[in-house]
Amino acid sequence: MSDAADTIAETRGNRVSARPRRASRREGHGAAPYLQAAPMALVFLVFFLLPLAATIVVSFWQYTQYSIEPAFTAQNYGDVFRGCLADLPDLCTTFVTYLSTLKFGVIVWACTLTLGFTIAYFLAFHVRTLKVQVIFFLLCTIPFWTSIVIRMISWIPLLGRNGLINQTLISMGVIDTPLEGLLYSDFAVVLALTHLYTLFMVVPIFNSLMRIDRSLIEAARDAGASDLQTLVSVIIPLARPGMLIGSIFVTTVVLGDFLTIGIMGGQQIASVGKVIQTQMQFLQFPLAAANAVILLLAVLAGVWALLKLVDIRKEL
Amino acid sequence: MTDAKAVELAAVTKRYDAALAVDAVSLKIRAGSYCCLLGPSGCGKTSTLRMIAGHESVTDGDVLIGGRAVTEDPPARRGTAMMFQNYALFPHLSVAENVAFSLRMKGVSRTARLTRAAELLELVSMSDYAERKPNQLSGGQQQRVALARALMTEPSVLLLDEPLSALDPFLRVRMRSELRRIQRELGITFIHVTHSQEEAMALADLVVVMNEGRIAQAGPPREVYNAPRTPFVARFIGGHNILDDGGRTITLRADALALAPADAAGEANRRATVREIEYRGPDVRVGLETDRGESLSAVLAERAFFERPLEPGAAVAVGWRPDAVHELTPDG
User: Fold this and answer.
1) What's the mean per-residue pLDDT of chain A?
2) Residue A227 CB-density burial (10 A; 0-12 exposed, 13-18 middle, 19+ buried)
3) DSSP character for B13?
4) Which residue range forms the structural domain that includes residue A307?
């Protein structure tokens, strides 16, 4: 690669990025841009940064059965992992809970990604008119017209012991006794979470797919690529930003979930969110806060790892 | 490189629902020739090219390449390669991997395909940019890469969809001569879609002027320019004056008109008033309105014009030699 050409490309890149900056300095002289950003900044500050800071602070406080004392201690973090190292290779409750939560995260991520990509692909490449695309999107959002609780309760008549599926299977003679694992099981949790969050995969992936120049697909075909090869070497790489955004969204939400896992698991399945909720019910706020901080760090580590896979700033 | 192959269209038709895009077009393109499909937008030239490429299904008729009917074949089995209008380079792959894409699809090893890609990048003078991503290249550079990628499949026929339209005028002229050079070096058949008559005349062995889904005229550029068949071709190719001459439609090349002072002796074909004067460097274009209300355009050599300069409003006698008259057949 020639150095001269490099320099040209670099200066060109700089010029492109420098221009808007200079323009904004000239036009946006004064307080206007700050005022425009202020409402969102305020919302973030009051409803996100302050509570987060409070959580972190409280996680280092001491507590008794009836009081919380603002005195520094790292004891709460120690309590979360109490006995975990000593018990190895056996897993302590905390590790089991985290692993279980992580397991749901991975399974639901895989399900929503597969489903989401397939649906987005269908919408982007097989539905030709914008009107029909909009109609299908509205169809996808119908489940969101009702509350999350109703949506989950609705699974009961379908999956229950005497639910629609069991009755149908029995009347068809496929099974003699009702399947027990349909409701209040891992399966039910994965099903409900997938149902809840697939749309959050569909939208960003659809957006990525729509931005793929259709002539790229023709160019691949022209170069002798089969449909599968085109999918693997052209479409999927170009859909990566959308897949990444959807993945971050879904895994983050699933790792913090306690409601769906609680209801669909029949309150029998452990999750980190559930643990935090229980600790709060027992007014062990510092302990709950410590757990929340650990969960936050785990999620951030996951997001960081995902961002390592795709340079999102470059691809957006 | 593989041998050049002839391309033949036999009553090829393309219908989109109710609209007829290409209407029973028949055409023979000799092996190793440079053919330009020329016409205004919506004339069916791009649909025709895409049907030859296999990116558009043929409603009726047959496409033959090298004497073999390929109408039902997928693009990759036709021995053609297409260069897309916006180049269609894969944004996530380096220049070298873009060029090597077809070999990667065939399962050729990385080193082997990159070696071959380097050869083709050499041909289009892009060796220094092999590691770049397409968005780090200028339009002209992207086009060279697209050309190299198209040539990677060793096509017998290269199809180019408005390859120069996205370039600035200066670069366009340079890439034009480069396309012609590469076509001569490889000796394969080029089919090039354009709406620029200048481009078509500069490049083509065979110019195919299309209008409303049909071929208005096909022939060597000189023949098309000197003897346009219909008023449409004369108008589209430019530099022609179309006149009604006693019930027949005739055309006169702008450079075949002679202007004399209105009071000059001798016979004139028309009397006219100068409406505008356009200085163009090598020549001067004089816009005229005849006393019958026709507008004419005369192109005079610069020197000849300034020996007897004219001003707008001047009255002139317009004359032409009888052998400059070319009769047109009506459009349709």
Assistant:
1) 84
2) exposed
3) E
4) 88-315
Residue A48 belongs to some domain of the structure: no
Whether residue A224 is contained in a domain is answered as yes
Number of domains in chain A: 1
Which residue has 């049909």 as its token pair?
Answer: B214
The complex's ipTM works out to: 0.84
pTM of the model: 0.80
CATH class of B7-226: alpha beta
Place of tokens 């603002």: A70
Which H/E stretch holds residue B182?
Answer: helix B169-186
Chain B: closest CA distance from residue A11 (Å): 11
Instruction: Tell me if B82 and A226 make a contact (CB, 8 A cut-off).
Output: no
CATH number reported for the structural domain that contains residue A143 in this entry: 1.10.3720.10
Q: At what angle do helices A186-210 and A236-255 cross, to 10 degrees?
A: 140
Domain chopping of chain B, boundaries = 7-226, 239-327
Tell me which chain A residues have a C-beta less than 8 angstroms from the C-beta of B86: 213, 215
Cβ–Cβ gap A1/B153 under 8 Å: no
Residues of chain B with pLDDT under 50: 1
Q: Which CATH class is domain B239-327?
A: mainly beta
Measured between CB atoms, which of A213, A222, A234 is closest to B76? A222
In angstroms, the separation between the Cα of residue A230 and the nearest Cα of chain B is 9
A chain contacts of residue B89, beta-carbon cutoff 8 Å? 219
Dist. CA B100–CA B88, nearest whole Å: 14
